[in-house]
Design a protein that fits this description.
Helix content is 17%, strand content 34%. It has a 3-stranded mixed sheet with strand order 1-2-6. The protein has a 3-stranded antiparallel sheet with strand order 3-4-5, covered by helices on one side.
């Protein structure tokens, strides 16, 4: 989180071939954004996406998209006051189970 506070991006960019971007910290940060903040998982038993985002109120907004054949799965959230507002797009021919924070199942 310290890198983000200083204006750096969680996954580094390197325009030369002399440095490796294959580092645990960069992958772990991306996995945290994917799995936890945006909450995207694949239930391989039922072949559906599970979308269960967990808001991090220190972040004003967060989002990601995953390219699937011809369309994208998109999850984004934005802080509005004391709440988080989500925008979720499920591509055609895909199924998803969406569990929002505070929602009773």
């Amino acid at each position: 989180m310290q890198q983000i506070k200083k204006g750096r991006q969680p996954s580094g960019k390197n325009w030369t071939d002399d440095a490796s971007l294959n580092h645990y910290s960069k992958g772990a940060c991306c996995q945290w954004l994917f799995d936890c903040v945006c909450g995207i998982r694949l239930d391989e038993r039922r072949i559906i996406f599970i979308i269960e985002p967990h808001p991090v109120f220190q972040l004003e907004n967060a989002g990601l998209f995953m390219n699937l054949s011809t369309e994208s799965l998109k999850v984004s959230g934005k802080k509005q006051g004391d709440d988080y507002v989500y925008h979720i797009v499920i591509p055609c021919n895909c199924m998803a189970e969406v569990k929002l924070p505070g929602e009773k199942i």
